[in-house]
Queue: 2 jobs
Job 1
Amino acid sequence: MNMTHGKALNDKCAVVTGGGRGIGRAITKVLSDAGCRVAILGRSRESLIEAADTISDSVSVIPTDIGQPDAVREAFTSIAHDFQGIDILINNAGVFPIFKVEEATDAELSQTINTNLMGTIYCIREAVPLMRKRGGGDIVNISSESVRNPFPFLSVYAASKGAVEVLSMGLRSELQPDNIRVTTVRSGRVQSGGDGTSNWNPELAERFFEAATASGHMRFSGEGMSPETMAAAVLNILTLPREANADLLELRSF
């Protein structure tokens, strides 16, 4: 993809959760290409290292389970030491195990809410003081088209992302005095590989696709976009003049 922003974010410091794969990796690349120093967080050290080695030596790797508050504190302490502040936080990390609520295990429910909602909150809590030191910043929370049209077997996932969208709306007013912009990017289906579906139980996956096809959700979702398309949209948001705030951008497969 031909990016025209050049070094629009030169010397900015960014954090991308889930930066080793899919959308997060694509966002990391466009931020690095635009001049940012980037720290990528994720549970898989191997995927983070591989992404950093491929993208740039300005990308820092910090293995972190964002669903664990102590791990997030430790990660941002390291970032504060290395970067002396943060300008951009991309809350991209998420999980979407498929299950019907009546069949869900405690672990599935806990992981979905802890990662998608609490992990986002933990990262924002640690990032805001570091942004304030820099005179402001940008928080971009990646949501899902499931909020508008919840898929069967993904109702808890949709609920967690809906909560992130409400959180974003509240934070816009809360953080405006600190010159911190907050944007929700509601993502449609992305053909990213490494998106978590490879870990689905085959029997459950078959039931999910049957139900989602019968309900029309698969037709609604389309064939999927490239992660680079999503990354380009995020870069456009971040390079808007400071007089503007993109509250909600919904980007769906055409």
Note: The domain at 13-244 is CATH 3.40.50.720 (Rossmann fold).
Job 2
Amino acid sequence: MARSTTGRSRFKIQRSLGVELPGLGKAGALERRPYGPGQHGNKRKKISDFAVRMKEKQKLRYHYGLREGQLVNYVKKAKKDKSQAWMDSLLITLERRLVNVVFRLNWAPSMLAAYQMVSHGHVLVNGKKISVAGYTVQKNDVITLTERGYASLNFQQAKATPRLPSVPACYTMDEKSAKLVDLPLPSDIPFEYAGQLVTEYYWKVKP
């Protein structure tokens, strides 16, 4: 998990990228100040093509709570998958990280909170406790929480005020469990991004 950020810096990150990233758990960043941080944030600035591509890549990194090296490793693995466009493969894999699954199920108010729940041993996959945030959930896996997980402040907060409006259709759910019945789709990503720009940013990365 990437280094945690304060509420203030999470607002700055979203303003600088020009998009709200649900994984950061801080809504309203663009409503409060719909331009970049700093005293010159509301002035038009010329931005290079490289910077444009990097901003798109940063959306993925910050939303999913990854270090750059982790994201590059996921890119390398995705490029080895010849069955589909590597960008689609990358997004499907990122969506199936256990920490993201907990967040997407609205069981945690942010990706950081989901990470805490996983690392503290509150998450079960097929009845087995998994404490690795990057564990890849497979089709037909059943995800539940321990009793401590259901009683946790993170879970209670997420249920009271869900960060996301809905759960992706690739999951079936009942009150206390969820099952991944199909692979997520790139269109399930809960924020706007330009996949082609991310592809261009990482074009030199070899599988």
Note: The mean pLDDT is 90.
